[in-house]
Write a structure and sequence with these properties.
Layout lengths: L3 H4 L6 H16 L1 E3 H8 L3 H14 L2 E4 L8 E4 L11 E3 L5 H4 L1 H8 L20 E6 L2 E11 L4 E9 L7 H15 L4 E4 L20 E3 L11
Parallel strand pairs: 7-8, 8-9
Antiparallel strand pairs: 1-3, 2-3, 4-5, 5-6, 6-7
Protein name: Winged helix-turn-helix domain-containing protein
Organism: Methylobacterium isbiliense
Length: 224
């Protein structure tokens, strides 16, 4: 149920509603292209043109140029430089950080595609691929599968980006161990195709309770 205060607010016109949505998109994104702003709220290009122009005219959006970007960008008037965040985390394919693939590639130099519907022999990185966010950069990706009958989180494929720091595999192993524990799985299983220096069927996970070993002979399901 919606609060009475919300129900009593007058219904905005379509243009006003879109302008409010795009303003919220800009506030969340900081700096963005028109495509970024539209995609955040799933607004079509024709419907977004007038609201963006209005937000520029009123000063909410400031047109800017970003080095390396081919298209016009807009800076929200209240945008502030973001804080540096240290840490490692595996990112869901549906996380806002990677949802809009063109923006992800512009910001991080990280080309990411959802290959669930791609035939297996044409996949570049795998089926359920999760990027690794490390200290503010996307530096690796892993194709994962949860085998709950075997109690194992299976690393089917792993890839480290060219510019990744030397500690990437170690931090990836930590993140995988944490994910396995969060899923209630007792061990990690690394296939030969996913073996990296520091992440192999015989390696040990330095943090977290799961143990690591070869994959089980049969995998029953893909559920998380």
């Amino acid at each position: 149920m919606l609060p009475r205060a919300i129900l009593q607010v007058p219904t905005p016109s379509e243009v006003d509603a879109r302008r409010n949505l795009i303003a919220r998109s800009a506030r969340a994104l900081g700096v963005a292209t028109a495509h970024d702003l539209r995609d955040y709220s799933r607004i079509g290009p024709t419907d977004a043109r007038l609201p963006i122009d209005q937000l520029v005219e009123e000063g909410t959006l400031v047109p800017v140029r970003v080095r390396g970007w081919l298209h016009q960008a807009y800076l929200h008037k209240d945008a502030r430089l973001g804080r540096t965040r240290a840490g490692a985390a595996l990112v869901s394919p549906f996380d806002p950080l990677v949802w809009h693939r063109p923006r992800t590639e512009r910001l991080f130099g990280f080309r990411y595609r959802l290959e669930i519907y791609t035939p297996a022999h044409k996949r570049e990185h795998g089926y359920d691929v999760l990027p690794l966010l490390l200290d503010g950069a996307l530096v690796a990706r892993v194709d994962l599968k949860a085998d709950r009958k075997a109690g194992a989180l299976i690393v089917q494929r792993a890839h480290v980006e060219r510019q990744a720091p030397s500690c990437t595999v170690e931090r990836l192993a930590d993140a995988l161990g944490s994910l396995a524990a969060w899923l209630g799985l007792s061990r990690l299983a690394v296939t030969p195709a996913a073996a990296l220096a520091g992440l192999s069927p015989s390696a040990a996970i330095p943090a977290g309770p799961p143990t690591i070993g070869p994959p089980p002979p049969k995998v029953a399901d893909r559920s998380w």
